[in-house]
TrEMBL record:
<keyword id="KW-0560">Oxidoreductase</keyword>
<dbReference type="InterPro" id="IPR001100">
    <property type="entry name" value="Pyr_nuc-diS_OxRdtase"/>
</dbReference>
<dbReference type="InterPro" id="IPR023753">
    <property type="entry name" value="FAD/NAD-binding_dom"/>
</dbReference>
<dbReference type="InterPro" id="IPR046952">
    <property type="entry name" value="GSHR/TRXR-like"/>
</dbReference>
<dbReference type="InterPro" id="IPR004099">
    <property type="entry name" value="Pyr_nucl-diS_OxRdtase_dimer"/>
</dbReference>
<comment type="similarity">
    <text>Belongs to the class-I pyridine nucleotide-disulfide oxidoreductase family.</text>
</comment>
<dbReference type="InterPro" id="IPR016156">
    <property type="entry name" value="FAD/NAD-linked_Rdtase_dimer_sf"/>
</dbReference>
<keyword id="KW-1015">Disulfide bond</keyword>
<dbReference type="Pfam" id="PF07992">
    <property type="entry name" value="Pyr_redox_2"/>
</dbReference>
<dbReference type="Pfam" id="PF02852">
    <property type="entry name" value="Pyr_redox_dim"/>
</dbReference>
<keyword id="KW-0285">Flavoprotein</keyword>
<dbReference type="InterPro" id="IPR012999">
    <property type="entry name" value="Pyr_OxRdtase_I_AS"/>
</dbReference>
<dbReference type="InterPro" id="IPR036188">
    <property type="entry name" value="FAD/NAD-bd_sf"/>
</dbReference>
<dbReference type="GO" id="GO:0004362">
    <property type="term" value="F:glutathione-disulfide reductase (NADPH) activity"/>
</dbReference>
<keyword id="KW-0274">FAD</keyword>
<feature type="domain" description="FAD/NAD(P)-binding">
    <location>
        <begin position="8"/>
        <end position="322"/>
    </location>
</feature>
<feature type="domain" description="Pyridine nucleotide-disulphide oxidoreductase dimerisation">
    <location>
        <begin position="342"/>
        <end position="451"/>
    </location>
</feature>
Amino acid sequence: MTDPAYDYDLFVIGAGSGGVRASRIAAGYGARVAVAEEYRVGGTCVIRGCVPKKLLVYGSHFAEELQDAANYGWTVEKMTFDWPTLRDAVAKDVDRLNAAYTNTLNSNKVEHFLDRATITGPNSVRLASGREITAKHILVAVGAWPVMPEFEGSEHCITSNEVFHLESLPRRVVIAGAGYIALEFAGIFNALGSHVTVVNRSETILRSYDASLRDRLLQITMARGIEYKFNCGIERVEQHEEGCLMVHMKGQPDPLPADAVLVATGRRPKTDGLGLENAGIELGAHGEIVVDELGQTTCPSIFAVGDVTNRVQLTPVAIREGHAFADRVFGGKDTRVSYDCIPSAVFSQPPLASVGLTEAQAREKLGSNVKIFTSDFRPMKNIFGHRPERGLYKLVVDAQTDKVLGVHLIGPEAPEVLQAAAIAVKAGLTKADFDATVALHPSMAEELVLMR
Ligand SMILES: Cc1cc2nc3c(=O)[nH]c(=O)nc-3n(C[C@H](O)[C@H](O)[C@H](O)COP(=O)(O)OP(=O)(O)OC[C@H]3O[C@@H](n4cnc5c(N)ncnc54)[C@H](O)[C@@H]3O)c2cc1C
Ligand SMILES: NC(=O)c1ccc[n+]([C@@H]2O[C@H](COP(=O)([O-])OP(=O)(O)OC[C@H]3O[C@@H](n4cnc5c(N)ncnc54)[C@H](O)[C@@H]3O)[C@@H](O)[C@H]2O)c1
């Protein structure tokens, strides 16, 4: 396999979810592999995405747990919260993971350069430090980058890149956008005691999720004190004395005062300045690298995986794409990625989780041949905690075949419940299979097999 004409068999640009997996697997097949990383090994998920975000969700959730504690007989005195303690503990865990990912590269004999790489031709890259490297194959796994819309004063705003490093907990937070990142951080800051206003250009939050879940999330988060301003966008942000920001919005007479403005209006493939034109690589309308179903770009020696291809921006998908690439190109296996029934979750408070077709998608596809089963319940935990919030579980079923086409959940621990349900949907199980399964009691998950 090794071709002495090149420095490496594989050069990977980006040591994130997709790049690290591809490097490790290719090296395991005996390929000589190197990877360049311009920031920190681990990539978005580990360094400034899924992992630190989930730790902040856990950290903020104590507000609710500590309130509930009294009902269980606990006395918690002087309940206070210290942002720098949580922030620094999260940063320390990120350091631990960064080291673990670096060790993975070392122990798999993947050479790594902490440097930015650009493509100079079909088989060559240049590191920012000046070194030229040749490789038989190049894998582009550079991920995506937060989009900052153009408006006056945008330099005073932060994105998800900076939110993990805030000096102090902002008393008032304005969040632009109503997608994953916006609603996850709205939940975190709201639970930590900040006043949160979500500003969105449309009336729809989390567009890709089932409408009943979205409505429920809106209702609960509004009751928890999150304010929403729909059909408007940020026009300009002014910085006043002592760091106070004034957020002016289109169509809103009064500006909003804020201590932090988080812009979460999507992420764009990080292809700018990457030298893709030097290898004739075609880009799509959103700056994404166009690939075929095997991840091959319009340059046959160059492949791309993960967010940079703008297909499904989720870590497990980037990992699978990286693994499949290495299997096919270096392992002689025809591994493919199945994009059908990918489960996803929003770690809002409460969280929601989903797999398969929403009710609207099923009705569009099957017309009236759709059966909907729902369970609208008040989790035991909420009853004991004197919280009126209700969970909602929904099954979308093909009325002709009885197949469960979609499972949609909102409520405590919904993502934990959904993963197992996703196996059933992926396996094509029927509503009768769900009904035939004995409930596990007492649990919230039992609602899945009790819907009639
Ligand atoms: C706040 C946030 C929360 C998220 N939460 C979740 C979640 O809960 N669940 C989930 O599944 N997904 C989540 N995601 C999405 C997930 O992080 C991404 O889908 C995933 O990291 C994509 O992996 P990747 O390999 O394509 O890119 P990345 O992990 O982004 O890795 C790309 C790497 O390439 C490096 N790089 C870029 N250009 C160059 C260059 N020219 N030279 C060298 N290196 C370069 C970057 O520094 C980066 O380390 C979240 C994202 C964000 C921002
Ligand atoms: N739990 C998870 O799995 C998780 C968490 C965070 C991020 N992610 C991934 O990262 C991606 C990026 O997250 P995100 O929240 O930034 O994007 P998103 O696509 O989820 O949401 C973007 C939001 O910004 C709004 N918007 C877009 N352009 C705008 C503009 N010019 N002005 C005002 N509003 C605008 C959209 O209407 C939408 O509400 C997600 O699509 C997801 O794949 C996943």
